[in-house]
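Archive entry. Fields below.
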Amino acid sequence: MAPPPQSDEIVLACRDVELAFGGLRALKGLGFDIARGEIFGLVGPNGSGKTSMVNVVTGFYRAQSGTVHLFGEDVTRLKPHRIAGRGVARTFQNLALFRGMTVLDNILLGRHVHMRAGALPSLFYWVWALRHEVAHRRAVEELIDFMQLQDIRDEPVEVIPLGLQKRVELARALAADPRLLILDEPMAGMNQEEKEYIARFILDAREERNTTVLLIEHHMDVVTSICDRVMVLSYGESIAQGRPAEAIADPRVVKAYLGERAAARHKGVAA
Amino acid sequence: MDLWLIGELALTGALVGLMYALVAVGIVLVYKTSGVANFAQGAIAMSGGYATWAIAAFLGLPMWVAIPLALVAMFGFGMLVEHAVLRHMVGQPVIMIIMVTFGIEIFLRGFMPGTFGVAVKRLDLGIPQAPMFLGEMLINRAYLVGGAVSAALILAAIVLFNSRAGIVMRAVSDDQGASWSVGIRVERAIAVAWGLAGATATAAGILWGSVQGIDWSLSLLLMKALAIAILGGLDSIPGVLLAGLIVGVCESLATGVIDPLVGGGTRDIVASVIIVLTLLVRPYGLFGREHIERV
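PREDICTED_STRUCTURE:
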């Protein structure tokens, strides 16, 4: 087993991650590295462990064994808010917005990790807290422009359409200025045009903000066009890693997606 | 019935209502952060009264030392309740959580008198007994002080909730997963809400204890507090302020105006009537958030 790399060029290094819910083994000794600046795709059929893996990385689940290193530091046992404090922002498969708040407030909360003003300073040092607030607001306004959310910035998030809600969630994650951005199916339920928008935002986030991205996505066209490398999961195991086009063409991947007989037929067609 | 009497009843009712509202603040604080219905608030207020009395009586400390000590101790007690009980109830059905907080209420109702004796304890804050005259209205000074202190504490809570800390608490109540993901310490925010519930309940327990003495019946404040929290909208502190005034004034007028006609006993049904009417007519209360559902 290779030791976790020490280089700070490796953003995320997972080794032998095991996770079980009772008797169900969700992750069976997974390991992978993500390099700085990469867009790394995590793909696989439903229930293959993609979201579980992300939840282990972000501290929502605790792995039974194995290690997770972030920027060379062991974070395996850290709580979610500590991981967020180390520069990891995420979105959720089923959307997790602050439903009672406006678009602006949601995105502003994304900057929480940068706000050190606790209850006391904000009570007693109005001016001090205010100056910080202004700086945070400026950052958030830039992001609202970047994500083209100007028209709905003061709307309650509950009333805007799903596609825009997903965009707000992405904006909230970006508001943290994350060093590692984890996106769990950011394009689920979107049409072609909306998908292209989100893909553009992800590429721009990398170019302009030097963000490394871990992306869970079902749309293979998106995965092949924006990911640098992918890992394909099936039943909690890694069945292929590498460049998207090669990994997806791997016979084991075809089998996992289509089933054995269909895969054989697929091979026959290809040959 | 002359206007001076109505005025006196209304003013006294408003002051009493503010003192009820101080108990309700803790219910709203906890609901706002964790979505948990806190049915233990009445007994926590009672326990705060007992704690203050015990610190003063057993340690021989003057009131101005005993009160801050009791507030700190009960802040800790609130956090302890969260840590020892509520944290283990995460993800349980609402009915289980109501039962567990109500269980704490019943336990404390028995435990405190059981420990310190059932006789009513006197808590003397040094407020003069003689009533104050406003025109022809007689105002009890204990209510005047109690109402003023309660109003000040509720306003402080409103300020707190409009600060950064309040936004964090709202975030926690909206979505715990999302809160974690942006780096909020969800457990600590909920624990602090319980601590503040314990401290505000204690302030109310002390004020009520100075009026009627300390015994188990202080925990009956739960009924009034629930009525106020529900009428105010469960997650709104300004709502508590207004609802407290409404409940207090209604109760006082009912007692003064209807009691002589029907032979007494209306005071205690006012709160329950308000609970039922609110739930029937406007379930989200005066200021509560009405979730917008898109079908």
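CURATOR_NOTE: Chain B has a mean pLDDT of 91.
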